[in-house]
Design a protein that fits this description.
By secondary structure, the chain is an alpha/beta fold. It has ten helices and eight strands. The strands form two sheets. Strands 2, 3, 4, 6, 7 and 8 form a six-stranded mixed beta sheet that branches. It comes from Sistotremastrum suecicum HHB10207 ss-3.
Length: about 300
């Protein structure tokens, strides 16, 4: 679905899935990148070694509760937590690399607590049934399981939870951590874990920058934290990103968290092969507030929903 001024001006009548598939609602005046309707298979160029500062990449795309007609201010609760861990096949002493491989996956459904019954719209959109979440751990119960998985792969210290190596979270757009994780931690009455507060890479933004640099080869621009805050950029959904990179179409079911995550991992792997520097470009505000949040963490004001 193409993005238009009329659609962004009618923010309050669309579901959260619309915004997640098309991009940020805060960018109503940005013209979309023009991608040909038919893209010929690209000749596979030689792998390009680039100095890469990060060792591991945690690719993930959560699914959350939703109701038809709600906008992005809704009090979403996470109901699926899927992560794909990528690492370099080989990396030189000075940090140059080009080939990523899948090391492991973590996936669990998550039981919502504020509104534990899924809407029919949510089940239809995500494919997640009520029985899937009824028997799943809550978000608070899930976090220790996921932390042990991170410890197993040498990402964090089991006692202090400090990072043991440089890794960045890779998401499709800013929504998963900036919005869903921040909301969920408030609802669950817990602080955002330190290992989730920073080093987040918006892959959608990387693809956009790659397209712009490809079309303007004399202008080299590396993404940075300032990129998200100071530039208005067009936004491509997952299917458009795969198409822009001449990759095979989306594999699996769209809006299945694990399938979305695996396809983002394909995009990250291809960007690395093309020599794109993979580093954080998204700022997360752990104290971000929505009008349904009460004065105390965990307090939801239903009158504002």
């Amino acid at each position: 679905m193409p993005k238009s001024k009329s659609s962004t001006d009618s923010l309050n009548v669309f579901s959260y899935a619309f915004f997640k598939s098309l991009g940020e609602a805060e960018k109503p005046n940005v013209q979309p990148v023009q991608i040909p309707s038919v893209i010929k298979p690209e000749v596979r160029v030689a792998k390009k070694q680039t100095k890469q500062p990060f060792v591991s990449f945690l690719v993930f795309d959560v699914e959350a509760t939703c109701v038809q007609g709600a906008n992005f201010d809704y009090c979403h609760e996470i109901i699926e937590w899927p992560v794909v861990l990528l690492r370099w096949k080989s990396r030189t002493e000075d940090g140059r690399a080009s080939e990523l491989e899948v090391v492991d996956e973590f996936r669990t459904f998550v039981r919502p607590t504020f509104r534990p019954v899924l809407s029919a719209f949510c089940t239809s959109l995500t494919g997640i049934a009520q029985s899937d979440v009824d028997t799943a751990p809550t978000f608070v119960e899930m976090l220790p399981q996921f932390k042990m998985w991170m410890v197993k792969h040498g990402l964090i210290c089991p006692d202090t939870e400090k990072r043991l190596q440089r890794f960045t979270w890779c998401t499709d757009g800013p929504f998963d951590i900036r919005d869903f994780v921040v909301k969920q931690c408030f609802i669950s009455n817990i602080p955002i874990p330190e290992w989730l507060r920073s080093d987040v890479t918006d892959v959608r933004q990387l693809v956009t920058l790659w397209l712009q640099n490809r079309d303007s080869p004399t202008k080299v621009e590396q993404p940075s934290y300032r990129t998200h805050r100071s530039h208005k950029r067009p936004s491509l959904n997952l299917t458009s990103q795969l198409k822009a990179l001449s990759l095979a179409p989306f594999e699996g079911r769209q809006h299945s968290g694990i399938d979305d995550t695996r396809n983002i991992a394909r995009i990250v792997t291809e960007l690395a092969r093309r020599g794109v520097r993979l580093e954080p470009n998204l700022y997360i505000n752990p104290g971000r507030r929505w009008n349904w949040m009460g004065s105390r963490r965990g307090e939801v004001l239903e009158d504002f929903l």
